[in-house]
Amino acid sequence: MNPTICLATNGTLRWPKAAGLLWVFLNWALGLRALGCRVLWLERITADLRANEVPNLILNLRRCLEAYGLENCLALSCETKASVSNDISDGCLTFEEARDADLLLNLAYDSPTVELFRRSAFVDIDPGLTQIWIDVYNMKIGRHDSYFTIGETVGQPGALFPDCGLRWHYTPPPVYLPAWPRSTAPSAAPFSTITNWWQGWMEYQGQTYDNGKRAGFLPFLDLPRRTTKPLELAICLGEDSTGERALLREHGWLVQEAWDVTSTPWDYQSYIWNSFGEFSCVKPSCVRLQNAWISDRTLCYLASGKPVVIQHTGPSRFLPDRGGLFRFRDVDEAAECLDAVAIDYEHQCRLARNLAQEHFDAKTVISRVLEKALS
Questions:
Q1: Does the pLDDT value for residue 81 go beyond 70?
Q2: Using CB atoms within 10 A as the burial measure, which of 22, 201, 219, 307 is most buried?
Q3: CA 236 – CA 93 distance, rounded (Å)
Q4: Could you tell me the pTM of the whole model?
């Protein structure tokens, strides 16, 4: 009998236009379904959501799930006094139904209901930061039966952050390959990425630094002048963005508002498919903590046969520095990597897709997670 897996998600109601966040969970859900599992998508209705907006947020999420064949899988956990009307919740599962699952896969972090499930596995998608939040800032994640992380160095000798006394199992993040077929973009298409711009500050071991993507990109501000390929950022700038746009465009960057071009999961796909490849910097914490992190967004580019040029985040047992995926440490190396991709583009496209197939195929990745979590 195939297991029922409850996938606890986080933020898809709070940020309905953050399609990249939605795809983090979609790749897991589609992979689980392909393995024959019954998938329950558990979404929390929390007190910070405006009650009058909740019905439309739920309807929007249901439309997104239905587009990928995940109808009738949405379960709602209401953590506020406001109730959801029957016409909105009709067709959704209750939390009581979701808790009967064989396994909770918790990607929501601070889910207060973990102990109500018969078996649970925590999945860390912010390696290094998660462990610091738990150890230093007392983040409560609840007791789980097993703990997984997408950071290769988590819990390993020489790690630059604590393991919190937990046994961490490494898992690559998954990408559901059938949803991301190889695609061809015009030769004039830009290297692109999709990202938030602002983030909070990080304080750890007496050091305080800006941990936003803006801080990560600023050392590479002049990069467009050092390569022949156009570079584009689809970013969430928020209010008062005129100065930021002007700064980036002055240095040669193409700039899109992310919520204008990638606000639905299918728009997100289209944007990636129409890109030449990905160029991206990372949050400064990934470099400082050397967590060997790779973005779920980057996997969507790789699976689509798009070569990727990303900032180096530490030693990896399998991530290449040159070949489908290029990892750079400074602006000179970044420019060299971009030019190397352009010169050998078709070969690098094949290597990108091969890398996704070999290491990040959702069916393979998730089957290994389930084997450990259900044993």
A1: no
A2: 307
A3: 33
A4: 0.97
